[in-house]
Amino acid sequence: MRTDNRKVKNTVVSIYFILIVFAILLVTIFKSFEFFTDSTFFIALGLFVSLVLFHSIAGYFEYDSDGAKIIILNKGLILTEYINYRENKVEFTRQQLVGFKINNYIIYKSLVVLIKTYEGKKRKERFNVTLLKPKKLKYVKQSLSKTIKANRKLKLKQG
Prior knowledge:
Layout: E1 2-4, H1 9-33, H2 40-57, E2 60-64, E3 69-75, E4 88-93, E5 97-104, E6 109-116, E7 122-128, H3 134-158
Antiparallel strand pairs: 1-2, 2-3, 3-4, 5-6, 6-7
Helix pairs in contact: 1-2
């Protein structure tokens, strides 16, 4: 099964644009009319914090479980064609999957995948799934659960 959140990119770019234009507009208005001269810093700081928060949430997610390997990819949505600055890609065989968990915080969702390495150690990988639609997230959960169930059956047969 393959899924991603490619369609959300236009919305994210629009929100970035609106936040930046709003910040420039507020700074211009405050300077020209000299409104709220004491609180201008706090308003600019609030806009900056909201921009940084939105930037940390906005990410591209791709899941591919077709074939013998499972591929999970996270990367940024803005400027990824030019600068690949936030990519997190994990590729592993189905038998290496030990477990997974979806953490649902108030404004952030993450997928934590537990993978068994070839040395026998377990490794956690985290992925941002905040902008993935609930229906697609459900499909990812079903696919990972199915893989874990198949791994348990295989382990019982062998042992």
